[in-house]
Amino acid sequence: MKYDFDTIINRKDTHSLKHDFATIFGHPKDVMPLWIADMDFKVAPCITSALEQQIHHGIYGYSETDEKYFEVLRRWFLRRFDWQVQPDWLVKVLGVVTVIHLGIRSLTNEGDAIIIQQPVYPPFAAAVTSTHRKLVVNELLLSDNRYIIDFDDFEKKIVNHQVKLFILCSPHNPVGRVWTKEELTKLGDICLRHGVKVISDEIHADIVYSGVQHHVFANICPEFSEFTITCTAPSKTFNVAGLQLSNNFISNPVIRKAFIKEYYASGLSQLNIMGITAAKAAYQDGEEWLEELKVYLAGNIEFLQSFIAAKLPSVHVIEPEGTFLVWLDFRKLGLSTRELNTLLLERAGLWMNDGTTFGAGGEGFQRMNIACPRATLLEALERLEQAISNGM
To answer: How far apart are CA 260 and CA 325, in angstroms?
Structure first.
């Protein structure tokens, strides 16, 4: 490969939430972190070069994007997703979780029902309950090692609870599904029938694997675009989460105006210059790096599957169609949630994400971040094998 994903980079003492704060979370200091969704790879050289130029300029004042920035985004989404975005749709915010909170407050009132599909990224539920809305769960179904949507339950709960908003995770974190056009169309038609607005978190859209295609929900048909806030960011794609920038698209002017009003009321303002610089460089010159990254990640998934099939028959891999997060099924071990966490954290020395934090359907599962050098992944799997083989 042209780019190096094999070198192990020491991230200790770099203010890394992933690597430096285990004891703050009550975990052993030397635990191997495989949890939070950032990558243990250096960013694309084009990003580093652009940031270095910005640093040497020496002034870091209030900053904003221009038409050149939008043009880079426009070309990216058109080329990769056949999605023609417009300049007035773009609303830039620090991050997607912030957008979800702002979207909830601008599109619903306290006490309104909001539906999500668990097991799902924990901040979805937290955003609903912390803003004093009613949480409604449409639980995903595991069928033949693949998660599917219970559409009947989805529509029934929308009707019964008078749901006002649906938070869609596409591609889905943690189960790794890349929803088909047919599945998204069916979801959208139900929302259209019942006047349900949508916040579509598509932060993992760029990381999908062979044989699948990501479809932008708002691009399925014009009617869907009219009730959707689409959330995107370079953070997962290019490993720049710490630079805090998301590019969000709202085509409906009424929804956009309400969102921007809530955004200003929150006290948020301009983005930081480093986030802008990194995003522009990434979308302009980082595509080759991304394509090699996806090949490497696919190799890690294949390596993980082969190792577990050969040496850990009591663990089951839910193969991801997208994201660099793998949903692992430990239910055959017959352990309680507490026992499973003890096995992983204290005996194997591995810090993953406890499946119960993702809500309904998460018990007995763990989410593992495989965006690391293969040698790191091998060490993690060997630790797991040893802990299980020693009788737990």
So the answer is: 32
Distance (Å, rounded) from C-alpha 179 to C-alpha 212? 9
Determine the distance from the C-alpha atom of residue 61 to the mean position of all C-alpha atoms in its chain, rounded to a whole number: 30
CA distance 288 to 234: 15
- What are the tokens at 132? 């004093």
Closest residue by Cα to residue 97 from 122, 132, 117, 116: 122
Specify the CATH number of the domain 48-285. 3.40.640.10
Pairing of strands 316-318, 325-329: antiparallel
Tokens of 174: 């943690």
Residues 197 and 228 sit within 8 Å (Cβ to Cβ): yes
367 bridge partner residues: 327, 353
DSSP state at residue 322: B
pLDDT digits 0-9 by tens, 93-143: 999 999 999 999 999 999 999 999 999 999 999 999 999 999 999 999 999
In the numeric block, the tokens 């309400």 are attached to: 258
User: Residue 290 CB: number of other CB atoms within 10 A?
Assistant: 18
The domains of the chain are located at 17-44+288-389, 48-285
What architecture does CATH give domain 17-44+288-389?
Alpha-Beta Complex (3.90)
The pTM score is 0.97
Helix (H, G, I), strand (E, B) or coil at 80: helix
> Tokens at residue 260, please?
């921007």
**Strand ranges (E), 256-386:** 316-318, 325-329, 350-351, 353-354, 365-369
Number of neighbouring beta carbons within 10 Å of residue 60: 11
Name the one residue in this structure whose structure tokens are 């293969």. Answer: 374
pLDDT above 60: residue 392: no
